[in-house]
Amino acid sequence: MARRRCVYEGREKDLFEGPGPGLLVQHFKDAAWVRRPRKVGVIDGKGVINNRISAYLMTRLTEIRVPTNFVRCLNMREQLIHEVEVLPVEVVVRNIAAGEFAEKFELTEGTVLPRSIIEFYLRSEDITDPLVSEEHMTAFGWASTHDIDDMVHLSMRVNDFMTGLFTGVGIRLVDFSLTFGRLYHEDDMRLVVADEISPDRCRLWDARTNEPMDKDRFARDLDNVVEGYREVATRLGILSELNNLSEAPGR
After folding, report:
1. What CA–CA distances, in Å, run from 177 to 19, 91, 120, 162, 201?
2. What is the pLDDT of residues 167-210, one digit of tens each?
């Protein structure tokens, strides 16, 4: 696709004008960033793998009638998406205690939670994504009660589906985060899953060894970081498809 105007430059993805009204091109980069411990770097090939994994998962969600803003893959690093009004809150679904959550509640990492827990965090470039309540979201106009109900319902559907999908390929879905956006079409508006679902946004452990297969490998200075991402794609049966896509020119 010919070079278009960049409308948003992020740490790990950029958004470009799309080929028509209401469409954007999402470009996946190899840049890597984690907040705690604060760390930036490059994981060679990560953007290519994340693009394909996210496209696969978004497509599968559409098949079970979970609405997303994904349209189709364009090449190795880019996908066509619907432009949405992104809600300023992020939803985190936790199935197993890990990371800061395990530390905060003094749980042994790897402890299976009594039930899946949903948390909301404020999305912000300037502050440390604080945990927020439904009261915060409605009081400050970040989300309506209807939005919150939809986010909870859709997040649990995504969790149920992805837990089964990953279990079937020997992977434990520890936790993951979702971004939601309002998709407008004529007089209609609906809340959809937006952004990406990939090892950047999910904690994924090998079901036998509990070895991380996600960005925790980068955060914890483990070896073979990109191999963890690649193994996820391999087990999902999509790694070979990467070779059928061509690199985007001019990015």
Report:
1. 29, 5, 9, 12, 6
2. 999 999 999 999 999 999 888 999 999 999 999 999 999 999 99
Q: How many CA atoms lie within 13 A of 95 on its CB side?
A: 21
- Tell me, yes or no, whether 156 lies in a domain: yes
Whether 108 and 176 map to the same domain: the answer is: yes
For residues 170 and 117, membership in a common domain is answered with yes
* Residue range 15-41, pLDDT digits in tens: 999 999 999 999 999 999 988 778 999
Task: Tell me the residue length of the chain.
Answer: 251
Residues of the chain above pLDDT 70, percent:
93
- Domain span holding position 132: 85-206
Check whether residue 13 and residue 54 sit in a common domain: yes
Report the CATH number at residue 173.
3.30.470.20
Output the six-digit token pair for 119.
Answer: 């948390």
How many structural domains compose the chain? 2
* Same domain flag for 93 and 160: yes
Contact 201, 212 (CB under 8 A): no
**pTM of the shown model:** 0.92
Domain identity same for 122 and 77: no
Per-position DSSP letters for 4-26, written without gaps between them: --EEEE-SSEEEEE-SSTTEEEE
Angle between helices 145-167 and 46-63 (to 10 degrees): 110
